[in-house]
Amino acid sequence: MKKYLKYIPIILTLILFTYFYIYKYVYLNNQHFYGGNIHAKIIKIENYQNKSIQFYYDDKYCITTTDTKNDTLKIGDSISKKSQTAKFDVFRKLGGKYQLYKSY
Fold first, then answer.
1. What pLDDT shows up at residue 1?
2. Which residues of 66-84 are buried (b: 16+ CB within 10 A; e: fewer)?
3. How many of the other CB atoms lie within 10 Å of CB of 25?
4. What pTM does this model have?
5. For residues 88 and 65, is the Cβ–Cβ distance under 8 A?
6. Each residue of 41-93: pLDDT tens digit?
7. Residue 89 burial by CB count (10 A; 0-12/13-18/19+): exposed, middle or buried?
8. For 57-79, what is the HEC assignment?
9. Cβ proximity of 46 and 54 under 8 Å
10. DSSP string for the chain
11. Comparing 57 with 23, which gets the higher pLDDT?
12. Closest to 43 (Cα-Cα) out of 26, 62, 28, 30
């Protein structure tokens, strides 16, 4: 039994790290996206080993998708979303003007 006690701090650290990661990066991001009115441009894209793509519209907040093979957003695309919904419109600059590109 005593030999297992040395693993308790490691296990607790992993549990706390996982909890705070999920809370900070998943829950808070989802709350901000779903609950807020958003009118912003995509400023950064991060691809995680072709498993998920994060489209950042703010330094802290992003849209995450696991669809890495199909048509995706580009840096400079404008997104528009009303509060209390997950649906949003993407506007892309075509011919010098932003035009509705796609709705998600």
1. 66
2. eeeeeeebeeebbbebeee
3. 15
4. 0.75
5. no
6. 999 999 888 788 899 999 989 998 887 776 689 999 999 999 999 899 999 99
7. middle
8. CCCCCEEEECCCCCCCCCCCCEE
9. yes
10. -HHHHTTHHHHHHHHHHHHHHIIIIIIHHHHHHHHS-EEEE--EEEEETTTEEEEESSSS-EEEES--SS----TT-EEEE-TT-S--EEEEEETTEEEEEEE-
11. 57
12. 62
Q: Which amino acid is at 73?
A: L
Residue with tokens 């900070």: 24
Distance of alpha carbon 24 from alpha carbon 14, whole angstroms? 15
- The amino acid sitting at 90 is V
How confident is residue 11, by pLDDT bands cut at 50, 70 and 90?
Answer: very high
